[in-house]
Amino acid sequence: MPEETTATYGTQRKAAERNRAAILEVAHDLFAKNPATSLNEVAKRAGVGAGTLYRHFPTREALILAVYQHDVEKLVGSVDELLADRPAKEAFIEWFEMLAAYIRVKHGLGEALHHAAIQDAINRTYAPVTAAIGKLLDACVEQGSVRPGLGAGDVLLLMSFLWRVAPDALGVAQGRRLTAMVFDGIAAPEASR
């Protein structure tokens, strides 16, 4: 392939990747506010044409699935950064608050997430999510804020109250009170004294 053609291809590929990323970010935000947002509105807000959106995501379900997978990857990928920037217990709490906000969006998508392919993707994300929780738990154990031997799946179920509280200021405050209660229950013996 001539050098000019290779450079053009590389430029086009980068533009396509930027467009895809913009579509996913905008779709996430718009679906969080209104799950019935039209794909044309997503394209418009992402600054791309409808054809570009449909080239990347030929159906609404394909876009919803991609948003879901993108969000899970971002969430799972955030654990190391959180742990690098703050104590493990703070990272744990912040990560679960992000998970709760994300799950509220997922629940808002309702019917769209009951499509079989999307349910498959949801089932496949359980392992990466529990692995992320395991990493947070290990860091908390190492720093002495929780006792060892807790199962990531059990902690995920225990923390599920967070996506049941209201997403307003009162709900956030209630979630933080409940999280404090959870930490009292899972605290390392030395940490609870």
UniProtKB/TrEMBL annotation:
Protein name from the UniProt record: TetR/AcrR family transcriptional regulator
Domain HTH tetR-type: from-to ranges: 17-75
Keywords assigned by UniProt, alphabetized: DNA-binding, Transcription, Transcription regulation
Keyword Transcription: yes
Listed Pfam families: TetR_C_43 (PF21597), TetR_N (PF00440)
DNA-binding region: 38-57
Domain of life: Bacteria
InterPro entries, per database record: Homeodomain-like_sf, HTH-type_TetR-like_transc_reg, HTH_TetR, Tet_transcr_reg_TetR-rel_C_sf, TetR_SbtR-like_C
